[in-house]
Amino acid sequence: MAESTRLVDLVQLRIDEFVSERTVELAAIAPELGQFTDVTLSFLSGGKRFRALFCYWGWQSVTSAVDEFDPLARSTTEAVLPGIVLAASALEVFHAAALVHDDIMDNSDTRRGAPSAHRRFESIHRDGGFRGDAAAFGRSSGLLLGDLLLGWSDELFDRGTSMLDDRAAGAAGRTEFATMRTEVTAGQYLDILEENAWATYPEAEALPRAHRVIVYKSAKYSVEAPLAIGAALGGASSAQVAALRAFGLPLGVAYQLRDDMLGVFGDPTVTGKPAGDDLREGKRTVLVALARTKLPIHLRNVVDDLLGDPELDVRQVEMIRSAMVDCGAVDHVERIIEHNVGLARAAIQDAPLATSARAQLLDLADTVTQRVA
Questions:
Q1: What is the pTM of this model?
Q2: Where is the signal peptide (predicted)?
């Protein structure tokens, strides 16, 4: 995975360079914007960079010779590598924007073991002795930061595609990028809709509706879309794109299911979020939907009453966890994850993709579904 490590470092470098340019631009407007850019730089540091990796390996899988081990040995791929790195970096900036907005909607206090963006702005308000509502200032500033990052992701993506000789490939990548943005926004709305309107729908719809949220809020935008964007930028054939989508969608579902498990059972010292945070937020996940079908009616009613209570204590969180384990919902989700990883692996086993890139994608399949944070 040395090449993936190299890409992660390059993506961070390009993001830092881009934000440094914009920091100078903002400083020329007003010195107070230094607080704004400090939060921006901090929030864009680190992360697993999975979306950048899938974009890059989607590109490599269609631009390298199928039987070649070292795709970077080819001068043709080296020539366009800077553009692909910038496009991959744009996906990470877009992801950061989504996280900023998501944390506001979920009222999350932390992200990656540090205060979420809106909480950082809230602290700026309190520490500065400002007048008015610190929480409102934090939310408003966080919304603006998310919007700014959305715009910056467009700039980075366009800068990357402008470096490609194949204009048609650049346009195809831009189309995929636009589709991704629409789908993830739709998925975000479906997520908050389920948190608030779940009781108004028939019980039999709970599981398929939870699965729909996974597909559009996360699975497509976390794995399938980055792969399709990278492939499009590489001038992929329809057969190659189809194979990558068949790999990316089930893997994306497995990825989000693992994330949902960590949201309930993850170690806070590793995940960087409080234990049981998804339970306090009232996330109507596949795990929750399955548990409700398996729990006896009295326990199901208790869980329904507790889910979404921001004041859930440790004892209540542990009670819900135990109920989910004892009823078999946790084992069921683990089987679904394993099944989807199997579907993903089978989809590219004999696909017309570069051998070395396919090996990297299979390694990534394990990484994103076996993680602990």
A1: 0.93
A2: none
